[in-house]
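Notes from the pairing session

We agreed to fold both candidates in a single pass and log them together. This is the raw record for the first candidate, unedited. Please don't reformat it; downstream parsing expects exactly this layout.

Candidate A
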Amino acid sequence: VKIFAPNIEQRDVVNHLKGSPTEEKRNVLVESARLARGNIQDLAELKAGEFDAVIFPGGFGVAKNLCSWAVDGKNCTVNEQVNSTLQAFHSAKKPIGLCCISPVLAAKVFPGCEVTVGQDKNVDGRFPDAETASAIAELGCKHICKNVNESHVDKANKIVTTCAFMCKAPLHEIFDGIGTMVQEVLKLA
């Protein structure tokens, strides 16, 4: 297992205590290295031939830094290195795992694919971003409704997705869903 991130500037830096942007500037690779405790490489160095699968964690950083979904929604652009990484694994028929908001990357890069970001309605207030499912459908992809502890496997494209934090759920339920996504990716590898 190796961890990669693009060597680019973050769109913005958020003070998560206050929930507001700061004037500070940070680099995605450097910030990712903080989270990975330094065990990370530049995404430009990733070679699909050296790996059996790729998994993209989610988080709002995906919608801000790996693509422009946070600002442009379905009209977003995907970072060139992220796009080429996804294309390389897909072309090699290797599994791709995506969780939280990152399934929108597949929706932009692989028209016609099947993904989940949870539900297409804000069921019991647990899915406040349910409109993302409609945007995925507008991109020509099929959104599959799943609960937070489940994942969806698009067998034709070898894409496995789960909603994770797109659902307001207890952490153990989110953990379970991510676990099923990882297990399904490994089954396809």
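Candidate B (folded immediately after A)
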Amino acid sequence: VASGIGMGLPAAVRDRVAAVHRGSTLPERLRFYDGWAACYEQDVAVLEYRAPHLAAASLAFAFPAPCAEARLLDVACGTGLVALELHRRGFRCLHGVDGSAGMLERARSTGLYQELRLCVLGREPLPAPAEHYDAVTVVGALGEGQVPTTVLPELLRVTKPGGFLCLTTRSNPSNLRYKAELEAALGQLERSGAWQKQLAQEVEYWERATTEEESAQGTGYISGVVYIYQKCPVPHLEEG
């Protein structure tokens, strides 16, 4: 059928996006990202993917000025789209990690990162000491078949007390189970006094949907959410 949602998108883009979210083994997925690196930015431009912009804007808003001195870790940094948005908002000390060497190669060519390391999140710890970063971002990678929700404590470990964590996920049908699991984990960490929620911003036009089923109420887009948490300076004792 030529009409309908996602049909305005090039078939190749639709196929590549579907391939990422399809259940596959980790090595397969990392190889896929290596191959996707070359046309990734054109693809997300076609998708009108707004997460990097929205996440950076939210983080900059939460941040006490000035932010040029702040040290940030961009987890699952991909080709550096988040770094570009952060840089525009005055952040200058950016480190990135990604599981794909091909993506890191692209990120390196932007010249926006002081440091880039290969790291498969969920498989291995982040290559950073405890309480090292003023902020940690995970934009776009928290989703079904991607980074597991079990990584949250590791993200917290490398964040300074009082530092910020900026996370995003999608609210499209195929990611709802993951999103519920993520929100349960976020809430549990908040109740334990690990961090405090600053923001949970639902965004209707997150990116263009690639299929009819994934579209929010027939808009042709899928929705998403930006979360900002602040790591508690001192873990307070549970009452009761």
